[in-house]
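Hi support team,

I submitted a single chain yesterday and got back a structure, but I'm not sure I'm reading the token output correctly. Could someone confirm the output below corresponds to the sequence I sent? I've pasted both exactly as they appear in my results page.

Thanks,
R.
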Amino acid sequence: MQIDLKQPILDKNDSLAADNRRLFAEKHVYVLDLLASPGSGKTSVILATIEALRDRYNIAVIEGDIASSVDAEKIKAQGIAAVQINTGGACHLEADMIRRAVDVLDLDALDLIIVENVGNLVCPTDFDLGENAKAMILSVPEGHDKPLKYPGVFQASRAVILNKVDTMPVFNFDERAFRESVTQLNPQAPIFPMAATKGQGVELWAEWLAERIEEVQ
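Hi R., thanks for writing in. Yes, this is the structure output for that exact sequence:
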């Protein structure tokens, strides 16, 4: 006898995600779910995005980690509201976690919520949070072959950020092969080369995101 536990969990999560989506739409808040591996520079990208958009939009961040609040403290240090979710070992965030997190935020005062999901290229793709879009970050040191190894996350993402491009000369990263793989998997997703800690390439990404924020205002 085989019991499928995954589908009931996903069905319940999808129902809660639909509730979240209705709430975000009612409040005219754009929610971005950022996916990436550990060490890809998620927090650096978030900080650079905040710097680029904070004069135009009110922003909050939900930080998902297995443990610690290090990243949330970095966000708060910039004067941005941040809510920490510690999953206690789970490799992804779920819709009910997001709902509990937004309950402590003033949604009426926000335009953008950035969710930093748990560092993982597999589990988070299955779980709808009620977000407007998923985007993923791949860093150059991780290698150009990641779309071939983890196609699901590239297919689920509305945009792809290629971070740490300033390290390209150091690593054997074939940017052309990477772009071809991403385009084959998801031809609609733009690719944004970026060196987040240096502010390189942030403007184009920020403008793409701003256009989508405006759509829900």
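A quick pointer for reading it: The first helix runs from residue 6 to 27. Let us know if anything else looks off.

Best,
Support desk
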